[in-house]
Design goal:
Distance between the termini: 53 Å
Structural class: alpha/beta
Number of strands: 19
Strand content: 5-15%
Oligomer: single chain
């Protein structure tokens, strides 16, 4: 036989080259996927805009409501605290409306489908304009008209690449004035902001500023927000069960974590410390834990509520490692929320002090040439307990705490290697425990409860580690079937709301297990006052994991079992067709009291 390889078949090369530019077999098929549409948006299987009427339940007031209302003298009297619900009656017949849509902040799967749904709701009698590069593009007037042909290429696909995005925060009179000029010059009637809590806060500010006198006839510009964030921290009780992108991200992370969990009993020698994206709330890590059942999963909000120190948090991991080692299990996975350090009380106090000092002395610090200079200066400005804690941290970690803050004044926790810090602290603590295990053997809550034989195994065990950070892997994947359907219906809701003449609302869909209900939540009712960059600011409050929530209570009931033996499961890859294609996030199903895990949003139709 000849050993000379054959030349590649030209036909095969043509087939493969045809898959360039987002034309893989998967992407081609996903564009054709039918989506469920709520009945309120259908008339004889054709998509139509819905009308709106007051919902039965009103929004619970923020403790800062009275103070917040003073900043919205035009908007609040119109929206009040009244939630609206889409209805098939009084369908709007608006024509000639010009709407601009933009992405704001980090990407989340399903964003393109919001635009598709928005365009479908507006129909052929109105115009949809895209804003390139988010808020920065809006300030620059970087707009273009979106055609159906454009959306046929991006429907059901991941990422924000169709428009792009950025994190510019529009604030101050000059920038608001700039947006007003762009609206006037482009004859805009409305703006749709697709973003998280900060972006929707910005949408409320814009809605107030643009309420009137934008155009020559005195008309204003409507502004509507769409809830986006993989973190899942933009929730409003029963009105908004979850933000879009969360389901896709957590399913991607769960597949990766599940793969690693399967590897641990195969190699039988590694502890994997895995940090998961989700800057403040622990919804992502909690969902992934429920999906995969690791040995240890930290919940930041629990750490804060129980006032656990960094050392006590380290002991939680050490006790699990010691118990498993006593049983001959020298492997496991520890899930770490991205924002964990901001919830550990003494670390939180330190970070808050650093934020205040760095905001107050910004120019002074920027004029310093070395990190040593900055440290010396900062040590003289923070309290003694915070200075002592900061000095006790490894140099790498200490330096990370002094990184430049983001545009919202937040510490960029994704750049801080919390997983590495925990590995080093756990390793050191385990050495202490092995040197003298006597204090840790017993049945008290803070002890390990090992038999003499198990103690011997633990002392002889090895502690080998790997570390990971899963973040960007989950933001731009092709949306799950839930996120694809959810975002399309959010877009239909936003378009309908604008045609009904409404402004200052964030759209939502609830009753996800019962055909869905399209809602509009008044933005002013979501805003509270929070300390940022050394001053009080109005923001939409982040929804954190609650200790009395059904999802967290279930996690509490099972985590000890997961810790003591291998109970893990691998959920596998996300499915668009198949047995798990319609699965909701577990925390949504648990917290909303659904009877099963499948979402139901209406009749499936072909979008194009």
């Amino acid at each position: 036989m000849s050993t000379i390889p054959k030349a590649a078949d030209p036909n095969l090369l043509k087939i493969w080259e045809a898959s360039e530019k987002n034309r893989s077999l998967f992407e081609e098929q996903v564009r054709k996927m039918a989506l469920p549409v709520q009945a309120v948006f259908l008339d004889n299987k054709k998509i139509v805009a819905a009308g709106f009427e007051p919902a039965a339940d009103k929004l619970a007031l923020s403790p800062d409501a009275a103070e917040v209302r003073k900043s919205f003298p035009k908007l609040y009297p119109v929206t009040k605290d009244e939630v609206l619900q889409a209805t098939a009656g009084n369908r709007p017949q608006t024509k000639g409306c010009r709407v601009a849509v933009l992405f704001s902040g980090g990407p989340a799967a399903g964003g393109h489908n919001v635009i598709v749904g928005l365009k479908k709701a507006l129909g052929t009698d109105n115009t949809l304009l895209g804003v390139r590069q988010g808020p920065k593009g809006l300030l620059a007037g970087n707009l273009f008209e979106i055609a159906d042909e454009d959306l046929q290429q991006v429907v059901n696909t991941g990422g924000f690449d169709f428009l792009g995005s950025d994190r510019t925060k529009i604030k101050g009179h000059e920038q608001f004035k700039q947006v007003k000029a762009v609206c006037h010059d482009n004859r805009l009637d409305a703006i749709v902001v697709i973003g998280g809590d900060d972006s929707n806060t910005n949408a409320a500010m814009l809605a107030e500023y643009l309420y009137e006198n934008v155009h020559a006839d005195g008309r204003g510009v409507q502004v509507v927000g769409v809830p986006k964030t993989i973190d899942g921290d933009l929730q409003v009780g029963e009105f908004l069960p979850i933000s879009f992108g969360f389901d896709t991200a957590t399913k991607i992370y769960s597949e990766l974590v599940g793969n690693i969990l399967q590897d641990t009993p195969s190699s039988r020698k590694y502890w994997h410390f895995i940090k998961l994206m989700g800057r403040s709330a622990t919804h992502v890590a909690l969902e992934v834990a429920l999906q995969t059942k690791p040995a240890v999963a930290f919940v930041s909000e629990e750490i804060e509520e129980k006032n656990l120190s960094l050392a006590q948090s380290v002991d939680i991991a050490c006790r699990a490692i010691a118990r498993r080692a006593g049983k001959g299990i020298n492997h496991g996975v520890i899930l770490i929320p991205e924002g964990l350090i901001e919830f550990i009380p003494e670390m939180k106090a330190l970070i808050q002090e650093l934020n205040e000092v760095m905001a107050k002395f910004d120019k002074v610090l920027n004029g310093m040439n070395t990190m040593a200079e900055k440290k010396d200066f900062i040590y003289g400005k923070i309290s003694a307990p915070s200075a002592k804690l900061m000095a006790s941290l490894p140099d790498e970690f200490e330096n990370m705490l002094l990184l430049d803050r983001d545009s919202h004044g937040n510490l960029q926790v994704s750049q801080i290697p919390t997983e590495k810090l925990l590995i080093e602290m756990v390793r050191s603590r385990l050495r202490e425990m092995k040197a003298d295990p006597t204090p840790f053997v017993g049945q008290a809550a803070d002890q390990v409860d090992l038999t003499p034989e198990e103690v011997e195994r633990f002392v002889k065990s090895k502690f080998a580690t790997n570390h990971h950070f899963f973040g960007y892997e989950g933001r731009c994947g092709a949306p799950t079937r839930f996120d694809a359907a959810y975002t399309f219906n959010l877009g239909l809701t936003a378009g309908s709301l604008l045609l009904a003449g409404k402004t200052g609302y964030m759209v939502a869909v609830n009753a996800l297990d019962q055909q869905g209900a399209a809602l509009a939540i008044p933005l002013t009712g979501l805003i509270c006052i929070e300390r940022r960059q050394g001053k009080d600011e109005m923001v939409i409050e982040k929804a954190l994991v609650k200790s009395d929530s059904p999802a967290f209570k279930y996690f509490l009931s099972v985590r000890e079992r997961w810790s003591n033996s291998d109970c893990f499961s691998s959920p596998g890859p996300r499915q668009l067709w198949g047995p798990t294609a319609k699965q909701l996030p577990i925390i949504v199903a648990l917290n909303q009291g659904y009877a099963n895990l499948e979402f139901s949003l209406g009749e499936e139709i072909d979008i194009f």
